[in-house]
Amino acid sequence: MKQQYAIGIDIGGTNTVFGIVDHRGDTLYRGAISSRKHQNIEDYIQELYEALQPAILQVGGIENIKGIGIGAPNGNYYSGTIEYAPNLIWKGIIPLAKLITEKFGVPAALTNDANAAAVGEMMYGAAKGMKDFIMITLGTGVGSGIVANGHLIYGHDGFAGELGHTTIIPGGRLHPGTNMKGSLESYASATGVAYTAREFLEQRPDQDSLLRNYPLDGIDSRIVYDCAIQGDTIAKEVYEYTGQILGLALSNFVMFSSPEAIILFGGMTKAGDLILKPTQKHMEENLLPIFQNKVKLIFSELKEADAAILGASALVWEIKDRV
Amino acid sequence: MKQQYAIGIDIGGTNTVFGIVDHRGDTLYRGAISSRKHQNIEDYIQELYEALQPAILQVGGIENIKGIGIGAPNGNYYSGTIEYAPNLIWKGIIPLAKLITEKFGVPAALTNDANAAAVGEMMYGAAKGMKDFIMITLGTGVGSGIVANGHLIYGHDGFAGELGHTTIIPGGRLHPGTNMKGSLESYASATGVAYTAREFLEQRPDQDSLLRNYPLDGIDSRIVYDCAIQGDTIAKEVYEYTGQILGLALSNFVMFSSPEAIILFGGMTKAGDLILKPTQKHMEENLLPIFQNKVKLIFSELKEADAAILGASALVWEIKDRV
Question: A255, B157: Cβ pair inside 8 Å?
């Protein structure tokens, strides 16, 4: 059987990981290169090309590869370009899908990393068989991928699904990256959790907390988690507060697209019930009755290391045969 | 040519209006019956059936009718049922599409009134040719219909698109119908505008206003409009405030589905620039740069009386041939 494999590439700010994936979602080969070594995009693609050759040969050559799927920050599905990605070293608009297609000789599809994760989840993870769901990635930032009627929502320009930047608390916390106030990302990201912890410590100088064993500036979401599982009150309240904001935001998303499930993904989900329970409670409280007790709020079933490659590769199966 | 006509029915709390529409969106015949006369749904359908017979004969009989499209509050597209509609006299779950199909002998499709308006706008109005847009109806309440990838978003259960009930101001104004706080509908509906006017008058007892010529309880959105166009400061500020909340809400919707346009529809749009300008300003201010100055914020091009019938009838052209 020809063209039974897809290449998945996930471009992060620091590293690019890639793999060859079969139709069942098994990753046969994995590799990584730096995303920061080559200022020149052609040099980067050359290194990627060389790094992938041994794997391509292992599956019988490029003629067995249906295409290449890429997840990247600010990746635009329609244009196949990366546009003004603040965390990548290539500035402006990069026609990445076109450059990859020319180099490898197979079709390439590009989307942003959160959308790629949603596609991966739909094909191989917790959203298998679902036609309507929302994937929320809770990492350093908050990303999202929205599937309705079985398809990703790209919007008219390919930029749909920036739920991390929706305003949840008007006039609320300033987001230093966007200069906007009260966005979901300022509260529900790992960065937001650390910020909330510092804020609580400052607001309650007389309350004991394990968090006070750390310098205020050094508190990150991992420390908050460690203190919370040791039973620290302030640390637990940080998660309660984070879940309150996230739950409120999710209720709005539910009343928009009425998904069967919301799938949480990313580093923050390691907190388990600490984050899940308050989020679920506040989501339900803010829903109209017709939406209550219907939406599954679940964690991703994909291993985080695999999800990026799987999700990107999954884009390939949707590529129309245009070569 | 057979089956070139569709029947459109719009069921409101007080009246049911209907018409026969051709493929070009021309309404050939219009009529209306009461929605409140028959407690028994079969009796209501019988009256509707009889009222439509002269029009059906005029277009050459039922064999020239492809189907019947119905817009109704709480109408569910998937199940063809009206479910627990607070403003209709039929309680519980009404299998309306099935009853209509059995009575008329042609397929029937049902959706909520805001979704029907969105389909009408896509086929015959301001959204012609668009694949991604959001329709917001600003009337007594706030309704919405969301189109992505050229299709209405129904969600997994058929209830998607309740944007009027999303929380915009956490802990804000109480909605007496839903008991929820700070929802868009509590501010951006005609009811919300009247409420804001009364609130402003009470908060500023020393400020003159034409609005003070009316008893506080008697102020409605029409009076606010009349005073605003006469240059009354408080009345104009009511629209400014309404646009501030609506614009913020719209920015969140844009970052969800990145529509080409947001189309405003319903009684409140008669206020023209009074509502459009502040809404546009605050929408743009709350958008990430990649979304700014891209989304068309426009008024519906359909006559309100026609839109309901047109939108409902437009559902018919999407009915799969299943008879």
Answer: no
